[in-house]
Amino acid sequence: MFRRLLAVLVTLGVILGAGWLTLRRDDIPYEHLEAIYANSDSRYLAFGDDMRIHFRDTGPRDARTIILVHGFSASLHTWEPWVNNLKRNYRVITLDLPGHGLSRCIDNSQIGTQQFIDTINRVADTLKVSRFTLAGNSMGGGAAWAYALAHPERLDGLVLVDAAGWPREDEASESRPLIFRLLEVGTARRVLRDLDMTPLIRSGLEDSFGNPAFVTDEMVERYASLSRAPCHREAMLQLTSGQGERRIASAEQLATLTVPTLVMHGELDNLIPASHGEKFAAAIPGAELKLYPGIGHLPQEEIAEESAGDLRAFLSRRVYGVEDTGLGDLPDTN
């Protein structure tokens, strides 16, 4: 009996080992990724010999400036619908945070909110942008409100799009996409680190939209490929392990903000519940709140025209006090 059980266990181990080897995926060199995912607007900011931050700078150089910051595991590509809308009237800067997109890692042992704040500052300083409106989605939204607390003198406006920051309730944790729940388990992280994550990435993206039809093969391939840039998987595992530096929002600290603020949130967000958007709007004095029925975690993509229009209205009414005309044509967000 023992020998039969041992044989079964050995056989199972061999099958699992063979499956792991079959699904294992190597890193993709940055040069290869840049050839596919960079464009004519792509620029790189050197932090050191091997540490470069990818950003794009579009629109009139003498116009008001907007800086857009993406969320966890995403890249500046998530903002392309907004960029194409806004760049006629605004200078629009998008960037890949360290360990994301086409940006190298800076120091994964220190990855987190402060590193993201410093990166935003470094890009703005390099481009000689002294004041700007800062918008962030998800983890990038967490970096945006933390930046506003650290550098309020630099901001004309603050836009939080399904922003992170409040502690999760138990029921909210259970509704999150499977890939995020798996990555919080130490054993699962170690097993998944080198494997082909494409099926889980597709599932996570489909859970991130109110309408899963927004998820295309090209989108899934981009997320999967960029996650395999050298050091990116380590960066993301550091962030999901709880070791990456993270700021927790509180009504007391947010009450000190005086910058005009717009809070946007999809009511069907499975990752960060809409109640968190309501908390941001209640905590930040004078903040405006836009809740989008039927929309998920990425309104800048799912309802690009409507959300960009709301941003324009906010900028003209609350931030710059001038009439904003001429919504640009938006491309297909797929």
Give the secondary structure arrangement, pairings included.
Layout: H1 2-23, H2 30-37, E1 42-46, E2 52-58, E3 65-69, H3 80-86, E4 91-95, H4 113-126, E5 132-137, H5 139-150, E6 155-161, H6 170-175, H7 178-182, H8 186-192, H9 198-208, H10 217-227, H11 232-240, H12 251-254, E7 261-266, H13 274-283, E8 288-292, H14 299-302, H15 304-319
Parallel strand pairs: 3-4, 3-5, 5-6, 6-7, 7-8
Antiparallel strand pairs: 1-2, 2-4
Helix pairs in contact: 3-15, 4-5, 9-10
Shape annotation = globular
| Mean pLDDT rating | 86
Low-confidence stretches: 7-21, 325-334
Radius of gyration over alpha carbons?
Answer: 21 Å
Kindly state the percentage of residues in helix.
Answer: 40-55%
Account of the protein in words:
With 334 residues, this protein is of the alpha/beta class. It has a single domain (30-319), classed as Rossmann fold (3-Layer(aba) Sandwich), CATH 3.40.50. It is built from 15 helices and eight strands. It has helices at residues 2-23, 30-37, 80-86, 113-126, 139-150, 170-175, 178-182, 186-192, 198-208, 217-227, 232-240, 251-254, 274-283, 299-302, 304-319; strands spanning 42-46, 52-58, 65-69, 91-95, 132-137, 155-161, 261-266, 288-292. A hairpin with a 5-residue loop joins strand 1 and strand 2. Helix 9 packs across helix 10 (217-227). It is globular and about 50 Å long. The model is unreliable at 7-21 and 325-334 (pLDDT under 50).
